[in-house]
# Entry
Amino acid sequence: MTSPLDTVFAALADPTRRAILSMLLEDDMAVTDVAEPFEMSLAAISKHLGVLTKAGLIVQEKRGRVKWCKLDPDALRAASIWMQSFGQFEAVNLDAFERFLETETISQSTN
Amino acid sequence: MTSPLDTVFAALADPTRRAILSMLLEDDMAVTDVAEPFEMSLAAISKHLGVLTKAGLIVQEKRGRVKWCKLDPDALRAASIWMQSFGQFEAVNLDAFERFLETETISQSTN
DNA sequence: GCAAAAGTCAACCGAACGGTTGAATAAGGT
DNA sequence: ACCTTATTCAACCGTTCGGTTGACTTTTGC
# Structure
């Protein structure tokens, strides 16, 4: 048996997939549009979206010939709850968080 | 370049490693004692501890011939902060959390 | 009706993962 | 000194991962 946390964390372990989640945080997107900023094939992105879907992090809904991807925060919430057992995290420090997101973005673009 | 989040989430993606973290949450432990409840070789556990160490989730300190493992919540905090950008998580619901930990433990023992 | 667009599928590839075993190293106990 | 305990190392093995390519399906626009 594999716990849902296995798939959620495994999905989050890839920088491309985290970047996709960030993009979807801003707006729902079609598969092709998700793929556009990346330097890899559409098929590769399609696979990544499959991983995110299986992990329950996004949902995909086909309308016409385009498949829309939208964030589904429930699985993330479960994982977040798990993590908070360690370290008794205080309320999010937004300053630290923004600095953090910035370095994340930079390290992505230099992949 | 690989982001620290890559290694943290990858480390968390394995149920054995999450179980080890749970154990270390209660107390610092020697490698042999960490290995005891698991049905795999000591070498395998040693590898898992290596992964957790590289991810910064634990620290290992050798004293005499035994190597002590203790939790290091800093890396987890960073990952947790990242996750909280999705879903605007409210303060932890402790009831839900305990139910959750329970199912986690069960799904582990039936591996 | 047909070409183009959106997306997936299947086969393949090299690298990383999770485990094993057996040998090696280091420190303690007596 | 020597056996035991604690832990790692190295080599190996099968499976999964992240990517590619090329063929395929479905929908749309003209």
Summary: Residues 94-109 of chain A form the longest helix (16 residues). The helical segments of chain A are 4-12, 15-26, 31-35, 42-54, 73-84, 94-109. The domain at 4-109 of chain A is CATH 1.10.10.10 (Arc Repressor Mutant, subunit A). The beta strands of chain A are 29-30, 58-63, 66-71.
